[in-house]
Amino acid sequence: MVDAIFWCLRIGHQWRNLSESFPKWQLVYYYFRKWQRDGTLERLNWSLNKLERQRVNKEPTPSQLHIDTQSVKVAPFVAEDTGVDGN
């Protein structure tokens, strides 16, 4: 079931286009929504991230957060800069 969910999310297909090698799409989607609502997917993601960080000899949880503001400025739908920078 987890493989089917990951496959669909990774490929970006609609649930109805799920490969026939997996269970019926309705069943896969049922578990996806159930696990999404009850927090199972969030806990799974957190655990996998923690294991991967430990595998590469990093602290289990990140100690810093970096935000790239330039990606917002170069977006085509954002108007020209106006106002004071503040720096």
Automatic annotation (TrEMBL):
Domain Insertion element IS402-like: 1-44
Pfam families reported for this sequence: DUF4096
Signal peptide: none
Protein's UniProt name: Transposase
PANTHER family found in the cross-reference section: PHP DOMAIN PROTEIN (PTHR30007), TRANSPOSASE (PTHR30007:SF0)
Organism: Pontibacter qinzhouensis
